[in-house]
Design goal:
- There is one protein chain.
- This protein is 59% helix and 6% strand.
- With 375 residues, the protein is mainly alpha-helical.
- Helix 13 packs across helix 14.
- About 4% of the residues have low confidence.
Length: 375
């Protein structure tokens, strides 16, 4: 099916086809291609980042595969449970017909986190570090996958007079002739911005495993809360007027902010992050300016305080002492053989010590024997 999409404020018009190509009667749709492309790029980034995060890539692959299956299953169930109507309740077999569409991104994220996290635990991976890696992969996948909504002309917003308002046959059927918010574009761009910010945070500012993931759920939750309020096709909590994804997004923001506050003093890294924390946990050698260490400013400080200011100083001193001890031990063992003397050579005989005053007495006895001069 094709759609003519017009952005009247920008003077842009294009035609999009939901079907990319067909093999006989089997149609391959752009939505599936874009979802698959986003997944592959997200996984590729995760494997690249795993080296810097000290996460075993082979075991990470197992967690990703299990997380993918869990994401698909939960994305479909999430959509079917909150679908407005009895379509799936009256005919449950339709739940398995995913070619008709109906996947909820929040359900996919929940499934990936739960099942992927369990597999990571079974494979003895640091789950918090794995979450930091995969959360950035989620942003890549979401940024690309949202363009599938554009091709299908779905997940758009309410009427708007902004220059980038969008008009198509699908929007006119819901809103009328007025341009609507291109919500797919908002979410895609916000995911790109979030990815760039969190990528550099993860490499240079992260203070503990799991911090990047918490920032991800705060960022994405805030973005989704705003976007979901604009959409015309949101899933509603049965018996209420509340949008499911908007409520969940708001809860993610609150929980994420609370955890970030509670863990603000935590410093525990297994991979890249803040240089200061990496030095403190022993991931990298501390770098101290030699001129600063030799500065006379610290000349009056006792050695203990200097060791606190310059942690590397104490380590180097202990290493030198250990090397010196190793080189001195053999020399001490050989020293007695080289300087061996006869027994008692270093001690004065007892007899001479007792007769030591005798020479003086003899002199006194001989002195009167000298002839006295005559007058």
């Amino acid at each position: 099916m094709t759609h003519v999409v017009d952005f009247p404020g920008l003077g842009i018009e294009c035609t999009v086809n939901e079907v990319a190509f067909s093999i006989g009667n089997f149609q391959v749709r752009w939505y599936g291609i874009l979802i698959a492309l986003g997944f592959l790029l997200g996984v590729g980034y995760a494997f690249w980042a795993s080296k810097k995060m000290n996460v075993d890539s082979d075991r990470l692959f197992d967690a990703v595969l299990v997380g993918l299956v869990g994401a698909i299953v939960c994305a479909r169930l999430y959509y079917c449970v909150f679908y407005d109507g009895d379509k799936y309740w009256s005919d449950p077999i339709k739940i398995f017909d995913i070619r008709e569409g109906g996947l909820a991104i929040y359900g996919g994220i929940i499934g990936a986190l739960v099942f992927g996290g369990l597999m990571a635990k079974l494979r003895k991976l640091k789950v918090a570090a794995v979450l930091d890696v995969t959360s950035l992969g989620f942003l890549i996948g979401q940024a690309i996958g949202r363009w599938g909504n554009f091709v299908n002309q779905e997940a758009f917003g309410t009427a708007t007079d902004l220059p980038w308002g969008m008009v198509s046959d699908n929007t006119q059927a819901v809103v009328g002739s007025s341009p609507v918010h291109p919500c797919f574009l908002y979410e895609s761009l916000l995911c790109v911005v979030g990815f760039v910010l969190l990528h550099f945070f993860n490499l240079y500012l992260r203070r503990y495993d799991g911090q990047t993931f918490l920032l991800y759920i705060v960022w994405y939750g805030a973005c989704r809360f705003f976007i979901e309020g604009l959409r015309t096709d949101s899933l509603i909590i049965p018996g209420t007027s509340l949008r499911v994804s908007q409520v969940l997004a708001g809860a993610c923001v609150v929980v994420g902010l609370v955890l970030l506050f509670l863990l603000r003093h935590k410093t525990s890294l297994t991979g890249c992050g803040s240089r200061k924390v990496m030095e403190a946990v022993g991931l990298v050698e501390p770098v101290v300016d030699p001129e600063l260490e030799k500065s006379t400013i610290f000349g009056d400080l006792p050695p203990e305080e200097l060791d606190e200011i310059f942690p590397n100083r104490k380590k180097e001193k202990e290493a030198k002492e250990a090397e010196l001890a190793e080189t001195e031990e053999p020399a001490e063992a050989e020293e007695p053989a080289e300087t061996e003397e006869p027994a008692g050579a270093g001690e004065e005989p007892e007899a001479p010590q007792e007769d030591a005053p005798q020479p003086a007495e003899e002199e006194d006895q001989e002195a009167p024997a000298q002839p006295e001069p005559k007058e």
